[in-house]
Amino acid sequence: RPFAHCCRDHALQLTSPSSRRLDLTTGSAKAQELQDVDYVWEQTGASCYEVRVLNPKHDKYQSAVKQFNDSEVWPDPSQPGDPPRPKIVKVMQVWNTKEVHEAYEKYKSTLANPKETRRFHGTTMDTACEFGMNPNQPPCNSDKCAVCNICRSSFRVDLAGQGPNRNTPVGKSLGPEGRYGRGLYFSRHSRKSHDYNGDTARDINGKSLRVMFLCKVVEGEQHVTDKLKLQGPDLDQIVRVRGQGGTADSVVANGGDRNGPLRFHEVVVYHGHAA
Q1: Would you say residue 179 has pLDDT above 80?
Q2: How would you list the strands of the sheet with 250-253, edge to edge?
Q3: Are 193 and 72 in contact (CB under 8 A)?
Q4: If pLDDT is split at 50, 70 and 90, which confidence band does 93 have?
Q5: Measuring CA to CA, which of 14, 151, 231, 275 is 20 to 30 A from 241?
Q6: From the CB of residue 92, how many other CB atoms can be counted at a distance below 10 Å?
Q7: Which residues contact 248 (CB under 8 A, 6 or more apart)?
Q8: What DSSP state is assigned to residue 200?
Q9: Residue 159 near residue 176 (C-beta atoms within 8 A)
């Protein structure tokens, strides 16, 4: 793709003029404050947040790797052609804006059962963006980059269903609502989210890399289903925020059908501040 600048890095840095990389000098006050953090992307201005690149010694790094590796058998010997389990090469911690954090906590406080989990999420990325994989590129400001927009301002239900899988035969058959309605889809299985982050695939320095999120999700009261689809009026009677008398805050499909459409667990939440 051609750029009107000397290189890809320069072009994308100019789209994020308020981003700066903080390299933590050993012994500095910032380094002492952020132990086991290699460097920080700091976004200032109206949207003030940080993305911290963790050292493998950091406890959050280790817990993310453990959850990724322990989430299921991967590759599955019962599934010919199942891709090998990727190796995690970098863990970044997003420190959301104050507004995002407060909205999340406020929503959680309204629930009778504020059940909170950590779930995986795969999404899309602007074709010019390499944030998280290219160490010289800050978060971009493209409105087409779901990865950087989630880092900046979290999730938006109104943009749900815009991923590349909507154009697959299954996606087309389910329509714009998706399998369980318009919402934010997560999974306890990293393998499931890997199916949705193909748009982030980049070849950098001889390595094939992708981006995946591990998010706090307020599942609240769950409606557990083994149905292949819940949409429209059927879903209205189940989900509270749809305003038709439902009492559930999330829909959970536990999966387990190794050769069917519900091979993996997934959970859907329907409020923009639930993750």
Answers
A1: yes
A2: 184-186, 266-269, 250-253, 222-225
A3: no
A4: very high
A5: 151
A6: 21
A7: 220, 221, 222, 223, 238, 239, 240
A8: G
A9: no
Question: Which of left, alpha, beta for 154 (phi over 0: left; psi -120 to 50: alpha)?
Answer: left
How many other C-beta atoms are found inside a 10 Å radius of the C-beta of residue 129? 26
Strands (DSSP E) found in the chain: 19-23, 37-43, 49-54, 92-95, 116-121, 184-186, 202-204, 207-209, 213-218, 222-225, 250-253, 266-269
Q: Return the ∠ at Cα 151 (arms to 268 and 18), rounded to 5°.
A: 160
> With bands split at pLDDT 50, 70 and 90, how would you rate the model's confidence at 165?
low
Quote the tokens at residue 120.
């995986």
CA distance 23 to 7: 22
Cα end-to-end distance, the chain, whole Å = 34
- Only one residue has tokens 């999966």, namely 255
Q: What is the total residue count of the chain?
A: 275
Report the DSSP beta bridge partners of residue 119: 215
CB atoms within 10 A of CB 87: 9
* Mean pLDDT computed over every residue of the chain: 86
Amino acid at 202: R
pLDDT band at 10 (very low <50, low <70, confident <90, very high): very low
Confidence of residue 164 (pLDDT cuts 50, 70, 90): low
CB 28 within 8 A of CB 52: no
Tens digit of each residue's pLDDT (9 = 90 or more) over 193-210? 998 999 999 999 899 999
Q: What integer pLDDT is reported at residue 162 of this predicted model?
A: 67
> Which contiguous run of DSSP H or E holds residue 146?
helix 146-153
Cis, bond preceding 77 (omega within 30 deg of 0): no
- Comparing C-alpha atoms, which of 250, 143, 104 is closest to residue 186? 250
